[in-house]
Amino acid sequence: QVQLVESGGGLVQAGGSLRLSCAASGIIFRFNAMGWYRQAPGKQRELVAEITKGGRTNYADSVQGRFTISRDNAKNTMYLQMNSLKPEDTAVYYCNAGPQFWGQGTQVTVSS
Fold first, then answer.
1. Which residue did the predictor score with more confidence, 75 or 26?
2. 3-state class of 85 per DSSP?
3. HSE-up of 55 (CA within 13 Å, CB side)?
4. How far is CA 105 from CA 15, 56, 65, 66, in A?
5. Which ranges in the chain belong to alpha helices (H)?
6. SS3 call for 100
7. Which residues contact 94 (CB under 8 A, 6 or more apart)?
8. Is the pLDDT at 26 greater than 90, yes or no?
9. CA-CA-CA-CA torsion for 102, 56, 75, 10, nearest 10 degrees?
10. Dihedral of the CA atoms 53, 58, 60, 63 (nearest 10)?
């Protein structure tokens, strides 16, 4: 029933910033947890950041202090602000809501 659409990916130089958006077709308030995952070539999909409907957040150690996840329940949109990007951040980034809803993914490429 719920569809998720990511946007904001692209190419950026190391040290630059991007903001990813995840727009939901329905209200997101009913989902306790939403998150951003990423998958680099040859690696498993990993959790980057998650946020509850109450605003509690958790981050992967690799992005702590550089990325910020936020959630606007009124706009049914989740964001990932990515600062101080590194080449190691290059991956396809996916929006997730609950265990079963996924976006199509958006490519983030960081050049050195």
1. 75
2. coil
3. 1
4. 22, 24, 23, 21
5. none
6. coil
7. 6, 36, 37, 38, 39, 45, 102, 103, 105
8. no
9. -50
10. 90
Q: Which residue has the tokens 């109450």?
A: 54
User: For residue 112, how many other CB atoms are within 10 A of its CB?
Assistant: 8
Token digits of residue 10: 């692209």
What's the token pair of residue 99?
């265990």
Q: Which two tokens stand for residue 35?
A: 């998150």
pLDDT tens string 30-53: 888 999 999 999 999 999 999 998
Q: What is the rounded CA–CA span in Å between residue 91 and residue 93? A: 6
What band does 2 get if pLDDT is binned at 50, 70 and 90?
confident
Q: Can you say how many angstroms the Cα of residue 112 is from the centroid of all Cα atoms in its chain?
A: 22
β-pair type (10-13, 106-111): parallel
Question: Which residues sit opposite 106 in a β-bridge?
Answer: 93
